[in-house]
Structures are given as C-alpha cells and as structure tokens.
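Need residues for this backbone.
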C-alpha cells in the first residue's frame, strides 16, 4: 500500500492540476478525501481551488480495518457518546434478564425483586431506541417469548399448569404477523408422554405510535405431539428407605405403550377450534420499549409483559 506522504502528494498534485485547468475536475478527489478522512474541498470552475487546506490521514495497518485514530476532539466525543448508549442499554437488558432467574416468569418474584425489575424497565423505557413501535412494524414482526409478567391473570396458569392435569407450562409466546396484522398468543404444555398447545388468534389495529387494539377471534387446541418415554430409575429413596423399582418396570412399560397408542390416535385428528366470548375478545397493548431482541409492553389490565425474540442470546 502507498505511504501516507506519497498519497497526500498525489492528491495535492491532482488538485493543483485542476487549479491550472478549471475545466478539469478530478473525479477521484472526493473518494480519496473520504478514504483519508479529509475535510471537504470546494472546487470552483471560475476561481479555482483554495490551497490553504490541511491534509491529515489516519494511519492503520489495515486500511479497511475497524481501528482508527480520532479525527478531532469533537468527533471523538460524538463517537464515544454513540457507543456508550448502546453499551448502557446492553448492560440494562442483561441485568433485567438476570433478575428474572427463579421467578417462574414473575409468579414467584418477591416484592423486592419486582421493585428491582420495575426500576430496570423504567430505565430501559427512558432509552427506548424505537419511540414509535407501530411505525416500525418490521421490528414487531416475529415470535416473542414471554420472560416476565406482572399480570395476575396469568398467575393461575403459571402456578398450576392450566386446565391440563400433570401438565407443565413450557413456553408462552406471542407471534406477530405485521403484513396481515394478526397476533397469535400461544401456551405450550408438556406432559409425561406428549406436548400440546392452546392458542388464541387475533387481529390488531394501529391506534397510536405505541398502542395497538387487539380483537381475538378464535382459539385453537393443538393435537398432542409425542415426546420421549418415561425413564424409570432402578432405585428411589423415600423416607430414608431405598425402594427397588425393577419389579415395576413391566407395569410402567405397559402403561407407556397404552398411553402412546392413545396419543397417536389423538395426534391424527385435526386441532380443535373454538370461539372466544365477546366479553374477553378485545384489549389494547402499549409497547414502551422495542429493539431487535427485547420488547416491553403494558396491557389494559395494568400488567407488564417482557418478551424476548425467538433465537436471541438473551434466552440462553
């Protein structure tokens, strides 16, 4: 690569030539100026070029590399400020997600933990990089996993596993299709031998830069999907006594085979659809923070919802 002094000399000679011939305007001068981080130079066909400008290049081992020296104190301050804000948001998001640990999506959160979460949410909302989320529907688009909520209406579901016996809530999600203006809220349950889901489909309308109106239309109970068989240990300890479970293996295997046969029969049937009563069919949702991986929303019931985009490292 040419040395910096020789490159500067070449640029100066080119501009000097344009001064001697006003009709000649070097096409590559702006490109070289941008590559060398030079101040803009005005070219006038009638008066020529001012020659009282200074040239300064950035020295780097790799001319295409990310590392460069500050152009000027003012520029350095701007670059530091622009990089500081995303870093601060990143730290806040990490602290927020860490505070969810052991809360079972908010169900088991103590009052102290809730206060900490609300404080972190408030700080993030003040730094919202998307002030008008409904005007950036491409960011809202996709599947979002519920990480935390303060909405009491979901607590019975989280505490008991819902209406399904022996079921555990594996995932609560919201999928937004911004092109068709549809929303699907879904709960995934897992049992000893199968998983199933209950979903509610809705349409949404934009009502303000932050608020959407949601109208639910129908619900769907998905057909069960078979999971791995139950693994029975050889021995268990109960009240200080070790119990050998080997004699029960045959019985457990027989029960598993019967349950699997029933599950396969059910799985071959289509999902069950049902209508949603008008009294609970509408609600609104206010998005107060939105970026490519985190969304904070507030509902008409006063609850807070923190959702993480599917595939985000925040879910790890």
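Answer:
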């Amino acid at each position: 690569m040419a040395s910096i002094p020789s490159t500067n000399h070449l640029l100066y000679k080119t501009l000097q030539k344009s001064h001697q011939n006003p009709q000649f305007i070097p096409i590559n001068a702006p490109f070289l100026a941008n590559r060398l981080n030079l101040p803009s130079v005005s070219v006038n066909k009638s008066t020529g070029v001012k020659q009282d400008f200074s040239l300064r290049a950035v020295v780097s081992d790799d001319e295409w590399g990310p590392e460069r020296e500050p152009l000027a104190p003012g520029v350095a301050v701007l670059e530091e400020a622009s990089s500081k804000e995303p870093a601060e948001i990143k730290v806040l998001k990490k602290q927020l997600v860490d505070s969810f640990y052991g809360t079972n999506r908010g169900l088991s959160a103590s009052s102290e933990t809730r206060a900490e979460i609300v404080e972190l949410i408030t700080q993030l909302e003040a730094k919202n990089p998307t002030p008008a989320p409904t005007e950036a529907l491409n960011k809202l688009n996709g599947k979002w996993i519920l990480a935390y909520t303060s909405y009491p209406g979901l607590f019975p579901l989280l505490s008991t596993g819902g209406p399904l016996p022996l079921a555990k809530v594996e995932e609560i999600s919201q999928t937004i299709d911004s092109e068709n203006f549809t929303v699907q809220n879904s709960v995934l349950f897992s049992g000893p031998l199968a998983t199933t889901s209950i979903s509610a489909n809705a349409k949404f309308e934009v009502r303000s830069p932050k608020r959407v109106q949601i109208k639910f239309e129908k619900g769907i109970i998905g057909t069960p999907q078979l999971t791995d068989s139950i693994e029975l240990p050889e021995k268990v300890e109960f009240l200080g006594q070790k119990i050998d479970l080997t004699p029960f293996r045959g019985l457990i295997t027989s029960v598993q085979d019967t349950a699997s046969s029933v599950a396969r029969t059910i799985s071959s049937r289509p999902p069950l659809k049902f209508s949603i009563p008008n009294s609970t069919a509408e609600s609104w949702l206010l998005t107060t923070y939105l970026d490519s991986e985190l969304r904070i929303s507030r509902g008409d019931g006063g609850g807070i919802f923190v959702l993480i985009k599917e595939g985000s490292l925040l879910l790890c």
